[in-house]
Structure formats: C-alpha cells, structure tokens
Specification:
about 160 residues; mainly alpha; globular
Length: about 160
C-alpha cells in the first residue's frame, strides 16, 4: 500500500480495490511454498518448475496464434523482434531459471527462510529502475524499510524458537 501512494506527477491508472489481488497472491504464494516443501520435495526443482510453466504456455500460445499481430508488424519490424527478444529473455531468466533456483532453495532450506528471499524483490526492482533513469521516492524508501524490519523480525523469531 505504501508503494501505491500518490507520487507527484504520477497518473493513477488503477482502483485501490485491486490491492486485494496482492493479498490473494500472497496467500497463494504461501500455500505454494509449503506445497513444494511438504508434497513435492521428492521431485527435482526442474520438474516442479516445468509443470506450471507448461500449463501457462499452452493457453498463452493459443492466444498468440489467434491474436492479430499486424498492428505491431506494420510499424517497425525491428522493434517487434527486439520486443520478442526482451520478452523471451525475461521469460527464460526472470521466470524459468529463477523458479528452478527458488524451488531448489525451498527444498534445501525450508519455506520460511526461502520466502524471505522474495522480500528483496522490491529492492532489485528499484535498483533496475534507477539504472534506467527512474527516480526513487520517499514512499518507496519507507516501503523498503518496512520490508527490512519484517525480514529481521521473522529471522529473529525463527532463531529464538
């Protein structure tokens, strides 16, 4: 919610009610980590990652085949192929490989420790944004501080148990 606060000059394009999707995604994320550790730990991390990626690839391919790409190809074919290359790189490195590594981390260290890794995603996103010339705002800094406090509190609680 802190990151969704109004920034100077920023356009608001979504309704705050959609923030509930973040809560729902978080619940599914927690269930997923526990499922990987408790029920799927006997399988290799690659196998665990292949199943959901295959299930999402099939409908995505079907949608791609029925989508009219003529709007994109008529403007600049070079731009189309650079966009396809960027999406492919994000798919491979940002999703597939990171999912395999994350599944292995869950198997090795457990759900609680593994889930703390994902709290650092906003930090990486901000660094990438800074590298591409975006500015960092006070609400973003506040959100990152809250994340660090939460990670510290979780790790402190785990060590005391």
């Amino acid at each position: 919610m802190v990151l969704g606060a109004d920034n100077e000059g920023a356009q608001r394009t979504t309704h705050p009610v959609f923030a509930i999707f973040v809560v729902i995604a978080t619940m599914f994320y927690g269930a997923n980590i526990n499922l990987i550790k408790e029920k799927l730990s006997k399988y290799k991390a690659f196998t665990i990652a292949t199943l959901p990626l295959t299930f999402i690839a099939l409908p995505a391919l079907a949608i791609l085949l029925v989508t009219d790409l003529s709007n994109f190809t008529t403007a600049d074919p070079n731009q189309l192929w650079s966009s396809v290359a960027a999406v492919s790189a994000l798919s491979l490195f940002g999703t597939a490989i990171s999912l395999i590594l994350f599944n292995r981390l869950v198997q090795l260290s457990g759900p609680v420790v593994s889930s703390t890794v994902t709290y650092f995603i906003p930090f990486v996103a901000v660094l990438i944004g800074l590298a591409f010339g975006e500015s960092i705002t006070l609400p973003q800094i506040g959100g990152m501080i809250l994340i660090l406090i939460g990670v510290y509190a979780i790790n402190k609680h785990i060590k005391s148990v």
